[in-house]
Fold this sequence. Notes:
single chain, three-stranded antiparallel beta sheet, disordered N terminus
Amino acid sequence: MKSHERSTKVRPVRQWIPAFAGMTGLRLAALALVAALLTSACGGGISIGFGFGFDDSQPAVSLVADAASVRAGQSVKLAAAAADESGIDSVAFYRFDGSNTVRLGTDGAEPFEWIATAPTDGRTTLSVFARARDNAGNEADSNVVTISVTP
């Protein structure tokens, strides 16, 4: 081939992603979660799916809020980062009411976000978490984020 000609030949996947070739599904999911956390800091989220075959592992999921403290009745934006080898189907957002959980809503597309409203019933905190469901039906809960609520 002459130096000014370009090859239009498609290279096999193993040649263009050699850095990932030896990684297990769990390590790839962890890598995807780190990437998701980094992008969620700028308002975005990410979901990465890869692999073939049977998936019996739980997805990785984490949750952040855009404020550490809000006034009663004020909104707070929640963003979840989720990753799994079979891809993420949806992320549901929950809050704790005493020992019970209340489903706030579900986001089926990335970025996985929800707007929660701080309670006006005199509570001083709002505790929330996210539950990711992968395409194989496996679920996992995120960390609990507690937001201070002021009157």
